[in-house]
Please model this.
Amino acid sequence: MSANLIFLIHFSATLFLVGLIWTIQWVHYPLFDHVGPDGFAAYEAEHNRRITPLVGPLMLVELATAVMLAFGQAPPWFSKEIAIVGLLALVAIWLSTALLQVPCHNRLLQAFDRDAIRLLVLTNWIRTLLWTARGILLAGTLWRALQTLSAGSLES
Model:
């Protein structure tokens, strides 16, 4: 697989996840509080059933391509330092997911819990801001590469 294609797949996965996390953060998680106690555990279970096949594969693709970019399969125009910073941000996203958001969801699978919802919304800002920063970093990198290409000096 070419280094440019790896970058394109990575960038696409990241941008999709940036849009998804903002939708979750701004719309979906705050609405949990309006579902109420009746049937909430079933609602949360359905949320998990639907979101996991959407976000799980994309997060895995994003992680795999981030590792590839950081450790030797990056285009010549993609800075190793940016790849490492992006990978570290991704590790922080995964840690936040495992240590903060998943435990909140596990509490919510049991029953409606207003404190767990508030904690979920609050801690999810970590992922929202990190994914947004990753998206901006990758877009800026691509922009600089395209500017260099249009000037005629970018290696393929």
Notes: The chain has one domain: 3-150. The chain has a mean pLDDT of 94. The longest helix spans residues 114-150.
